[in-house]
Task: inverse folding
């Protein structure tokens, strides 16, 4: 389990990361980071979508 202080940091980071994604939607690394963040926040569906988006961008789709 993740320490509560980490959960708070993830919650603080999420809006910043989502804003970055809106500015750089074709950045595969940001999408991968989002996938990890969502996974750590127990948001499996959003995590899966972010990882899939990252993979698509890396493949040039």
Result:
């Amino acid at each position: 389990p993740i320490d509560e202080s980490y959960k708070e940091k993830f919650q603080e980071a999420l809006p910043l990361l989502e804003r970055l994604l809106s500015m750089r939607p074709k950045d595969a690394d940001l999408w991968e980071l989002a996938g990890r963040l969502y996974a750590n926040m127990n948001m499996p569906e959003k995590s899966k979508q972010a990882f899939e988006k990252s993979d698509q961008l890396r493949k040039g789709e």
Q: What stands out?
A: The helical segments are 4-23, 28-40, 44-59.
